[in-house]
Protein 1
Amino acid sequence: MCDFCRIVNGEMDIDLVYQDELITAFLDYEPINEGHVLIVPNVHVGSLVDVPDEAIVRMMWLARKLIKRFEEIYRTDGYTLMNNGGSAGDLDHFHFHVFPRFEGDGFGWLDSGAEHDHSCRIVDLLREGL
Ligand SMILES: [Zn+2]
């Protein structure tokens, strides 16, 4: 059983923010900024494509509520909502990171600097499968 499943089952000492029958949210123990929350589906799945529809809707619902709370509590300049999937992920239990953002807080994209073509071909390929 993974650490997030243990958290969902109440088997780990964490700072619980929210829990219902579909999702669980708790403070990240290594926050980017104070208030950094992880939102996970209660089922163990690794990819967004495997998260049950009702759970992903609930996760987005909670993310929006948390972003509003960040604004109220911190008077934020913005927020970040993100997920890393597959081998880019840090754990094999799907999760959203959501945290408040402030001008000059230093968090941002890590750009490799590599040049990539802006291909019109990919637009057609993406549209075909939708
Ligand atoms: Zn898990």
Protein 2
Amino acid sequence: MEKLELPSPIDMPTPFAQVLGRRRSSREFSSEPLDASILSALLWACAGRNAEDGHRTVPSAMDCREVECFVFDADGVWLYDNAQNALLLMTEGDHRMATTAGQDFVGTAPVTLVFAVNKAKTGEISEGRMGEICKSVDVGAMMENALLACAAMGLAAVPRAWLDPAQVLQAMGKTESQYDPQMAVTVGFPL
Ligand SMILES: Cc1cc2nc3c(=O)[nH]c(=O)nc-3n(C[C@H](O)[C@H](O)[C@H](O)COP(=O)(O)O)c2cc1C
């Protein structure tokens, strides 16, 4: 499996109140790629480790950490490995359009993150309504951290529930029995 080591994240010194004041959904992106250190900061913010014991920047129900972050860019579909600060190649090639479900305005943005529930990691989370709420809230926490990191770094971003899970799974090289892709966040430099 091909692995791409990420550099250290850039600092995000913007005061928190300014970050909150700036957050906005934006659907217009330059096609300029994201620097690896910016991508590293974005991934750390939404799915990274903030403790040696594996705890993350986001909470998760029963500490299952069942939501994983996939990166769709021009080169491939990658799984973020927060222990190694690396991207693991799942599928080679440009599959960004597989996430749009007709929202083609996001197809040329350099990166779309997909937050997907890894069904092998949901063991401690109860079945039924409570379990569904927990998994989706875990996804939402990661989504919001990604959006705030984008606001802190001056990036344009839009959260998107509008995706075709079957198309996204195929691009990820995964099946419905393995993953449930719930939300995308499309990111780039503003136009
Ligand atoms: C759960 C959720 C799903 C969303 N899905 C989409 C989507 O599929 N496509 C899109 O363009 N915007 C989507 N949005 C963005 C909303 O349209 C946007 O947040 C709303 O219009 C408010 O605008 P603001 O984010 O700029 O404050 C979604 C937002 C949330 C929270």
